[in-house]
Amino acid sequence: MSVSVARGPLDVSALRAGIPAVMAHERLLPVHPVLAPLFGVAPGDPGLVRGHTVVCSGSAAMSCALAVMSAPTQAGSWAGVVGLPSVGVGAAAELGVVLSRTIFVSGAPSPSHAHSSHSSSSSPDMAAVISALVDGVEVLVLSRRVVGAVSAGVMRKLHTRLQSRGGVLVLVGDPGSVSADVRLNASTRMWEGLGDGHGHLQRRQVSIELDARRRGRPTRADVWLPDHRGGLSACDISPSDNVLPLRRTG
């Protein structure tokens, strides 16, 4: 298991100084301007409620989670990403994530270990790392394998601590025993740039649907994730004849 920021290793214990107390008027974190309409706020306004749990699912779940992280890190918040070794640091930076404020923990338990008969006490190192991050970051991103490797009781305690400190928990995939306040289903619609046997991928059109508690109906938006620059932007054109869906061939 390795813990690092973009510039090198980080002693997780250094984060135990924690984040400052959150005042009532600071109960919201900012969201990316493109995601703002989904959350029912104007671009530039905060809209991510501290203490909430956000679940990202669908074929573009990982990119969606990075997009959720981008605005808080730009505003000065620290973020932690645990158990997602396939996350590209370059891709995160292109989406606006401030790498100098992001801690990546690449280690993750194997599926067999996560579902072993000793799961009630499994992966104590992972639980310790998450515990340290809970005290020092405001956005914590966990994979479903990490959630599955930590016992439900320990996960509830860590979740409660994060909520009490005003942090936001972002889960990628199945949330397991953790209750979700906001669900973001990000589904790939198509990639642009493929021709008839030629071309290269330029950008991906993703449909994101947000479903939240105490909200009358879900909201939906089509976005480019990533766009032609690797970032996130609003979908400003309709699919054309040269935009083809990718199909699994094997």
Any overview of this molecule?
The protein has 250 residues and is an alpha/beta fold. It has 2 domains: 24-110 and 122-182, P-loop containing nucleotide triphosphate hydrolases (Rossmann fold, 3-Layer(aba) Sandwich); 188-244, no CATH class. It contains 7 helices and 14 strands. It has helices at 36-39, 61-74, 89-94, 111-114, 124-134, 144-149, 152-164; strands at 3-5, 8-9, 28-30, 46-49, 53-57, 79-82, 102-105, 139-143, 168-172, 182-194, 199-212, 219-224, 233-234, 243-244. Strands 1, 2, 5, 6, 7, 8, 9, 10, 11, 12, 13 and 14 form a 12-stranded mixed sheet that branches. A hairpin with a 6-residue loop joins strand 11 and strand 12. Helix 5 (124-134) runs parallel beside helix 7. The chain is globular, with a radius of gyration of 18 Å. The model is unreliable at 16-25, 111-122 and 239-244 (pLDDT under 50).
- What count of domains describes the coordinates? 2
Q: Return the average pLDDT rounded to an integer.
A: 82
Helix/strand/pairing class, anyone? alpha/beta
Main CATH class of the largest domain: Alpha Beta
User: Which quaternary structure do these chains form?
Assistant: single chain
Name of the CATH architecture of the largest domain: 3-Layer(aba) Sandwich
Biggest β-sheet, characterized? 12 strands, mixed
CATH topology of the largest domain: Rossmann fold
Strand content: 25-35%
CATH superfamily of the largest domain: P-loop containing nucleotide triphosphate hydrolases
Give the helices and strands as they follow along the chain: EEEHEEHEHEHHEHHEEEEEE
- Spans of at least 5 consecutive residues whose pLDDT stays below 50 are 16-25, 111-122, 239-244
What is the number of helical segments per DSSP (H or I, 4+ residues)? 7
Helix content, binned percent? 10-25%
Number of strands: 14
Q: How far is the first residue's CA from the last residue's CA? A: 32 Å
